[in-house]
Amino acid sequence: MKGFAALSLICLASFLGAADTSAQEFSPREYRREIENPTQVVVLGTTHLSDAAEGWDPKVLDLLLDRLASFKPDVITIENQPGPTTSKLWSYRSVYPEAAAAYAGRALLMSSIAALSLDMDMPQAEAELRRHLGKVGENPTPAARRRSTALFAASGDPYSALVQWWRLPSSERVPGDGVSRRLAALLEELGLEREEGVVLAASLAVRLGLERVYQIDSQEDDVLTPEESDVFFQKVFPVVAERYNADPAAKERGKIENMTTPEAALAAYRKLNDDRIERRLSEIEWLGAIKERTEGNVGRKRVAAWESRNLRMAANIREASARAPGGRVLVIVGATHKLWLEAYLGMMSDIEIVSTDTILR
Hints:
Strand order of the largest sheet: 3-2-4-1-5
Pfam families: DUF5694
InterPro entries: DUF5694
Strand content: 5-15%
Radius of gyration: 24 Å
Protein name: TraB/GumN family protein
Shape: globular
Keywords: Signal
Number of helices: 17
Signal peptide: 1-18
Structural class: alpha/beta
Oligomer: single chain
């Protein structure tokens, strides 16, 4: 009897051990083996092109755009706030005062201008946009595309509004169908901006015949108090920044001032997407913040905010990817996000990360 009891305990322990191991090893990516054509995702790290010096010509990106077009993405995402997040930031502007002003300004302005013509608030415009896009089909009339332009703008998506505007023949880029003179002027102004949402995402979407881009950023930072944020930028950030700027990896990273020709711009983007460089810089910036000891562990809290933001971005990208199961998704983000998003997205059941080396070579 004692032998039987001992054997039972051994079997139970083995079962529990196996169950624990199974739980620890679970990964949604294992389901990918059951999918013949997983959704392919390229995460392109970029510098923020709005930092370019006066006189910089975005045409030096033509060779890069050729490489990106060769990937033939079905979905393009950009590092800007989606309409609901913009609306939330504004509604909670007393909580997120800096984020509301810095990251929601243009979308709110264009949304309010479009809303006057359409007599719709942001959620109403989003609902009407979905109905409208379902009705117009693949070859909308100029009037239908102008209305799409106005609805995208009113819903808090200025970059997709620009895609619709640019897909109109130049003779049809005129006020009407919800596009007021003021909104038309704002769209023309946006089209002249030297930023990646315009010169990379929107222009590529038009070139490929896509109807829109997807905004996937999330600046809803609710981790550090204002006082803790002050401590971080006074005590942690200067130390980390000094190490960062002194490291050879920072000097190797692609820079916009080096983008003087199409060939040089492509070379700079290869460096911006070099995993070796980005891993080293991430160690300095984020592991460095974790290691820097202060009252309240503000460095660790700042990393928690960073990880939370990237997780929300990854969720938005995954949601956008559902529009094209088995298709191709191009994610355009600041280079610092690249490794984090590839790590998070690579855990998904229907995502295959494609190296930028395959299209930037």
